Amino acid sequence: MGALIATCVTALVVNANTSAVSILIPAISADTGTPTSTLQWAVTGYSLVGAAVIVTSGSLGDVFGRRKIFLWGILLFIASCALIALSQEGLGVILGRCIQGAAGATILACGMSLISASNTGKAQLRAVTLWGAASAVGAAAGPLVGGLLASTLGWQGLFWIDAAIAAACIPVTLAAVAESNDPTRPKSIDFAGTVLIALILAPLIFALTEGSAWGWLSWRTILCFAITIAATIGFVVVERRIAAPMLDLRLLTNKVLVGATLSILLGAGTINAIMYVVSLYFQDPSALGMDSFQAGLATLPVAAAAVVIAPLITPIVGRIGARTTITVGFLAMTVSLVVLAFVTEQWSYGMFVLPLVALAAGMGLQNGPCSSLSTSSVEPREVGAASGLSNMARYVGSAVMTAIVASVYAGVTARREDAGLSDSAALAAGFSWSSISMAIWCALGVALVVLVGRNSGKGRTGELEVAQATASISHTITPPAPASSRR
């Protein structure tokens, strides 16, 4: 029970914190004087670091003890909350959020392993389901709670409260959670792979966000792309040689896994990117002019759609099949974004609700089956590695696509203002082109379904795997190690 309480509470806090930050960006910008275009790194930096750390933190738990690494993740989370809340400049907020990305990934990866190791059979299924429910509630409540606090106590309030709740989980973990590890796992940790993932993503995001301002053929843009290419080559070399690689490159020959992983990347990237743009547009005085609380309240239908669709995914897949469900999900997302591309300065909030709800529902339909397929399409001994690849894809999608959409939104808006359009018309154009860019890659997602194929999966997906896939809609999880490897 202690493990369940500690892991569910921390999962709720981490997911609430993650989903709330986009709503807080206008308030942070106004308080620190930092442009919102710069503060997008508070979102992309979090995901960038999370992508680099998610697999490594799970490996550290397997080797040195999951409870120990889980506790270090909580301490790091508390420290990052304090750094963000005390920051007087945007740089401190961005740095704190990058640290928080590492902390959040560690808490989620080791937390799932802890509750899986401390339960068996039906109890394990219930624990995973409750963990997923806590994550979903946190993700849904985050924007509302964050907006309420920003409108009352100030944007710093969210981070102080999150730090206090996380701190309360430390004595519970120490008193009631048993230590566990995986004695069969090689002791080496792929720190080089972690660094190389960061070196791949950071300059790529810089190039994508600043390329239009620097010039796509400028030396700075070319240098960023060159570093990304060099780091990618280095990553492949390291992963081929290390005893316990972050990514088993042989998995990339599995077309079902590759298709499911790319679909997860697109889905996670789209939902994070659209919520970032929505939070800015809804709160801009020249657009809908909401305050932080109103903007958080306005996102509730989107969060509700994701929560409601989650338990329906399994019966839907059972009736029409995984491939059809994923296709329907991507089509729903594409159509929703096409509708949003017609936004004008005359649109009221009510015009946004249905397409955003349909977008969230579509994301659930494609993400749930893809999450399950990513682990059922490999041999049992490869499940952990396949899950790690999927988890990393969620973070990568969020980091890269939020950066792209932030650049499109800011760039189009600025160019339309320079051309003489009103602020409201320019903002609507920025939102429209952001939606068009996302609609294009969601349409490409439909093509990925071809990789999934009719006979995807080497075995039947059990209840536990379904629960894990459903929980992953809200954020990311690492499945437990096989029972034979636990102590």
Automatic annotation (TrEMBL):
The Major facilitator superfamily (MFS) profile domain sits at 3-457
GO CC term, one of those recorded: plasma membrane
Q: Which domain of life is it from?
A: Bacteria
For this UniProt record, give its keywords in alphabetical order, as a comma-separated list: Cell membrane, Membrane, Transmembrane, Transmembrane helix, Transport
Q: Which SUPFAM superfamilies match?
A: MFS general substrate transporter
Q: Where does the record say this protein resides?
A: Cell membrane
A UniProt-annotated Pfam family:
MFS_1
Topological type in the membrane: Multi-pass membrane protein
Transmembrane feature ranges? 38-57, 69-88, 94-115, 127-151, 157-177, 189-208, 214-237, 257-281, 293-313, 325-343, 349-365, 395-412, 432-452
Q: Name one GO molecular function term.
A: transmembrane transporter activity
Name the record gives this protein = MFS transporter
Source organism per entry reads Agromyces seonyuensis
